[in-house]
Amino acid sequence: MRVRAEFTSEPFTIGATPAHATAALGIVEQSGLRHEFGPFGTSVWGDSTELIPLLSAVVETVLAQGGTRLTLLVESDE
């Protein structure tokens, strides 16, 4: 099943991208899945068998890098 996920990590900072957001982006980029990174969140598309484990790694990374909240939306493209 094809899915799209969008996530936002907090706390927000003005200016430089926070370490938790940069680390999460690095995990997504390493996956090779199609994605978009923006100032208020990251979107990523792929097969659920690839994307769901990726999201687990993103959650762990955000928390390990000082993130205090991660908001996640997952929806099927089908």
UniProtKB/TrEMBL annotation:
Any coiled-coil regions, as ranges: none
Gene3D superfamilies according to UniProt: 3.30.70.930
SUPFAM superfamilies the UniProt entry points to: MTH1187/YkoF-like
Domain Thiamine-binding protein: 21-75
Stated name of the protein: Thiamine-binding protein
Highest rank taxon of the organism: Bacteria
